[in-house]
Design goal:
The complex is a heterodimer of chains A (about 110) and B (about 110).
Chain A: E1 3-6, E2 10-14, E3 19-21, E4 23-26, E5 32-38, E6 45-50, E7 56-58, E8 64-68, E9 73-78, E10 87-95, E11 98-101, E12 105-110
Parallel strand pairs in A: 2-12
Antiparallel strand pairs in A: 1-4, 3-9, 5-6, 5-10, 7-8, 8-9, 10-11, 10-12
Chain B: E1 5-7, E2 10-13, E3 19-24, E4 31-38, E5 42-50, E6 53-56, E7 65-71, E8 74-79, E9 88-95, E10 103-104, E11 108-112
Parallel strand pairs in B: 2-11
Antiparallel strand pairs in B: 1-3, 3-8, 4-5, 4-9, 5-6, 7-8, 9-10, 9-11
Classes of the chains: A mainly beta (about 110), B mainly beta (about 110).
């Protein structure tokens, strides 16, 4: 079964700082990878996804992620965060009809 | 489309009581998933259905938990009897056949006293 690991569970940074969240997966088959965001008190929403093609994926709200097959990684980035980016971010890997989630990164952006 | 609908949004109950959580998937979606989210364990898949049939229930914590999908537009997750450690947010998600993106409902925040 596939698994996903996310590091640095809690991240605190100031507005305009750059954000990078690491995600590593383990799965032997063709991977479909996702980043979901959960704003305080809300449900999970899709931020971006990778199925195939260009390994650099652009998502909503200025987020992007890069799939590096050799490193089994799918890191999320945003060059300049805003206070409204305060949320929990989940990386997920799809395989065997299951979506495996990482433990999440709690990101707090200080105005 | 209204998206995935869950009810109730909040449930507070006492230990030992039966709890039933409800989910209406997006119309036309063949897959339905139940997840539990806690601070300690993160987001865990409990069970999923394909065309109303339970495919994998290996994530169901114990026999107190049961899930049904009597038709394509409705599913329930039942806990009987409930315990304080069941307190969590329970999410339902659905997706269409051939698509890997899951759409999540707003969740039910369950508190067992």
């Amino acid at each position: 079964a596939q698994s996903v690991s996310q590091h640095n569970h809690h991240v605190i940074l100031s507005e305009a700082a750059s954000l990078e969240l690491g995600c590593n997966y383990s799965y032997g088959g063709t991977v479909n990878l996702f980043w979901y965001v959960q704003y305080p008190g809300q449900h999970l929403q899709l931020l971006l996804k990778y199925f195939s093609g260009d390994p650099l994926v652009k998502g909503i709200k200025g987020f992007e992620a890069e799939f590096i097959k050799s490193k089994f990684s799918f890191n999320l980035r945003k060059p300049s965060v805003q206070w409204s980016d305060t949320a929990e971010y989940f990386c997920a890997c799809y395989g065997n009809n299951r979506l495996a989630f990482g433990k999440g990164n709690q990101v707090v952006v200080i105005p | 489309d209204a998206g995935v609908i869950q009810s109730p949004r909040h449930e507070v109950t006492e230990m030992g009581q039966e709890v039933t959580l409800r989910c209406k998937p997006i119309s036309g979606h063949d897959y339905l998933f139940w997840y539990r989210q806690t601070m300690m364990r993160g987001l865990e898949l409990l069970i999923y259905f394909n065309n109303n049939v339970p495919i994998d229930d290996s994530g169901m914590p114990e026999d107190r938990f049961s899930a049904k999908m009597p038709n394509a537009s409705f599913s329930t997750l039942k806990i009987q009897p409930s315990e304080p450690r069941d307190s969590a947010v329970y999410f339902c998600a659905s997706r269409g056949a051939g698509y890997n993106e899951q759409f999540f409902g707003p969740g039910t925040r369950l508190t067992v006293l």
